Automatic annotation (TrEMBL):
SUPFAM superfamilies: Winged helix' DNA-binding domain. GO terms for molecular function: DNA-binding transcription factor activity. SMART domains: HTH_MARR. GO terms for biological process: response to stress. Residues 20-154 form the HTH marR-type domain. This is MarR family transcriptional regulator.
Length: 170
């Protein structure tokens, strides 16, 4: 159980509004820190927050069919706005457009190696630190933590899909 003095102010406010298991609060804290990291990393590599989020989707889906329309859907913006966003990323050298091999009318968004390298280069020290942190736990503890985090990620994705489908029903 976390001591009150160890709990950030924002989390103390949230805890006053609802109750949850300590693991859920710890995960919420990780999510909050990850969001802060994404904003800091976006600024470091010279991208707007939405453009950085788009780069994340493009990098995650590399090798699949991700065009401006699909990117817009993932980001919750119009196809036209997504096309403008892709134009900015392409002009800055972060992505390229490539014709689809099977449907030449279709354009896929492809991350450029230099942009991927810059983003991953900024993350490398963090991954090293997290790997070192993991070594503080026994293999059994690592397995339990991994199982929890993977299951939590599944729950987050499921809840996200539920929110997305319920908002489109309105």
């Amino acid at each position: 159980m976390a001591k009150d003095s160890d709990i950030p102010g924002a989390e103390q406010v949230e805890r006053s509004r609802m109750s949850a298991a300590e693991l859920s609060w710890a995960l919420r804290s990780v999510n909050r820190a990850a969001s802060q990291l994404e904003h800091a990393l976006a600024a470091k590599v010279g991208l707007r927050a939405l453009d950085f989020e788009a780069m994340g989707h493009i990098m995650d889906l590399e090798g699949t069919q991700l065009g401006p329309a699909e990117l817009g859907h993932r980001l919750g913006i119009s196809t036209g706005s997504a096309t403008e966003l892709a134009d900015r990323l392409e002009a800055a050298g972060h992505i390229a457009r490539a014709r689809d091999a099977t449907d030449r009318r279709r354009v896929n968004l492809v991350p450029q190696a230099s942009a991927v390298g810059r983003i991953l280069g900024e993350l490398a020290p963090l991954f090293t630190a997290l790997d070192s942190l993991a070594l503080e736990f026994s293999p059994e503890e690592q397995a339990a933590i991994s199982r929890y985090l993977r299951a939590a990620a599944d729950e987050l994705q499921t809840h996200s899909a539920t929110l997305t489908s319920s908002s489109s029903d309105e």
